Amino acid sequence: MNIVIFGPPGAGKGTQSKFIVEKYKLHQLSTGDLLRNEIKNKTALGSKISTIMSSGELVSDDIVGNLIEKFVSNNTFKNKIIFDGYPRTIIQAKNLDNLLFKYDQKIDIVLKLSVSLETVKQRILERQSQEKRADDNEEIAIKRYKTYESSSKSVISYYKQRKLLKVINGEAPIEEINIEISGLIEAIKG
Ligand code: AMP
Hints:
The protein is α/β, with parallel strands linked by helices. The protein has one domain (3-189): P-loop containing nucleotide triphosphate hydrolases (Rossmann fold, 3-Layer(aba) Sandwich).
């Protein structure tokens, strides 16, 4: 089973992905983490993307597409991936379908975590004190939320049309969301 977890920054995608990974023995593919690693390891790609990332803009579809192909093409992860933070644009959504098709896979469910801008600001400020991410401050959080709002609509309707979209209240307590997600996954596992 391949899952897409979708939502604005601070929606709880990472937290819920970790829960799903443990419970259903999947592998988390966080494009944000992969990109931050490039910056941390001072690679050529890292230096190219650091300004874009710290400004709250999206990295190009080509760059993230190449990163995820390495993962999708690896047999170890076949049909065991949770995509966290990918796709973020309609081009990425279509690229992902093509890529999965190429490797004889598909998306089984898209979990969308909905949260308000106020919650996003609050959570990002909390995370800032723990993780010290360059893009976790109020101004950039607002920018990232706006970026999400403008690019997410077409992705959401794309998955809605395919009847893959499940909307979850991301403001609920973590354990409640865990239970809701488990129910949705169990239902498609049959
Ligand atoms: P995240 O950790 O998912 O909040 O992502 C942090 C930042 O990484 C985003 O604000 C973007 O700059 C970049 N990023 C992560 N995933 C993508 C993606 N799928 N497409 C473009 N940029 C991305």
